[in-house]
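Q: Entry one of two.
A:
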Amino acid sequence: MKSLRALALGFALNSAALAAFSFLAASPARAEAVILIDADSGKVLHAENATYPWYPASTSKLMTLYVTLSALRDHRITPDTLFTVSPNAAMQAPTKMGIPAGTQVTVDNAIKMMMVKSANDMAMLLAEGIGGSVDDFAQEMTETAHKLGMSESSFVNPNGLPADGQIVSARDLAMLARALLREFPEYSYYWHIPAIKFGRRITRNYNPLLGRFAGADGMKTGFICASGFNLVATAQRNNKRLIAVVLGAPSGAARAMKAAELLESGFHQNPLSWLTPSLGTVDALTPMDAAPMNLKDETCGGHRKRHPAEDEDIDADSDAGQSAGDLAQQHSILLSALRAPTDPVMLSDLGPVMPIVVYTGPTRTPDQIQTLQAVPEEDAAPKKKSKSKAVAAKSPDDKPAPAKPAAAKSSDDKPAPAKPAAAKPAANKPAAKKSTSGKESQAGPTGTKAASAGPWTALSSSRLVGTPPPDLRTSSAPDAK
């Protein structure tokens, strides 16, 4: 009898253990999915939760890029093809260029803006221009993904803004990056661009490894609350090219450091690595049937001091009162902590870059592009400081100014009768009355000055060669959100 009870108890415990194992197997051990592969062979060098479904965020734009480059290859469009910004594209949430509806942009410029600034409006412009509608383009994205073997991927929009049906995996993104490298080497500069210049505004590439990690040459970042911080990164050293994918990192700096660690480990493989079991090739990994991990509470919950943003790595458009250089230096310090024993300069400080000029309207001549390149850049953060300081310095000086004449007049109106004692109250009463009137009169000139400074006329239309200044001005508004 006791033996039967022991047998039943053992069976129950084994069943519970199997159930627990099944549960753990169906959910990631932690809220992160990573993979490292060799780009040439497709061999998997490292993988954690690589086939777990995930929200791609702006890494979706790599599939938008692939479909766009396929259209170029098939001669459906050319780099000079003009697409018009629709109201739908203009209304896309930041990050975006903020170009007004009705403005025309070439395919070439739209790709550059999308890949460097992760511009959601430019991704929508390409989708509507190539596919005719967002739905048709998204369908083409999904069908193309499945042809590439990305069996876990589905798309409903071209930019990765939150949507339940927008799903990928680390494995699928690695396969997509590999396909871009193999099929479109002639367009590789689109994911190499370190920065763009639009009018007077310069925006660095949101990819935190470009210019910092030796050999890094692409590809794309992504972030929404549900996905966490995502990064697809490629790098090459000594004819060896690697692809690293990090999904669900807790911050922009964390995803950069994780990708750098993966790539560095791949370039300096342990001589005894042949003893470890082979993980096979990326296309042979088995997809996982599960719902995507939702990290919204973990990433954007109330414990966060501020709402994170995709450009957290290099916050070129930050309105927090810090310049892009200051923030870049801070993140360089964080990233410099990743030092491999075999390579003491694994991550360098972010140095100066030569931005690529982007613009609206038809393709410009080399001379016109040189003119745009020569336009002085805008230093947005210091200007905000200087304006606030100027206003703060003006108001204390302007308030006493009316009071002094008022006090002088009151002492003149009441001459000798009460100089020591009565003069002060007498002076104070009129001063108080006139200070209020002074404030009212001061509001007029202040308003006049603000009105006169309204139109932005820093550059003439001939100097911008057809790019209207309001287009340039509106680009900064959504970035501050």
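Q: Entry two of two.
A:
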Amino acid sequence: MTSDSTDPAGQTVLTTFECAPAACDDLLAAVTDAYEHVIAKQPGFLGAALHVNDARTRVASYATWRRREDFQAMLRTEEMQGRNREISELARGFEPVMYDVVARF
């Protein structure tokens, strides 16, 4: 994601999901549904993209948030906690990692 902004404020969350190739479509559907119906409607959400590797064994999510606290508040919602339980059943594992934006090009 690029921007002409020189303001480095923001929070980026990269989440990688590991899955069996046979579960990839179901995992993508669950994550897409979570973004469309819950995550994208949360305060501070700026945007996201989903990526899949060629082997269909990894899904990556790149999301941007106004502040770290906005992302953490979304995770604490009852709706998202339930969806994360569903997603964890489709994935062998997943890990969201928060990164601070230090430069944009």
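A: Comment on entry two: Helices lie at 24-37, 68-76, 78-90. The CA atoms of residues 4 and 105 lie 7 Å apart.
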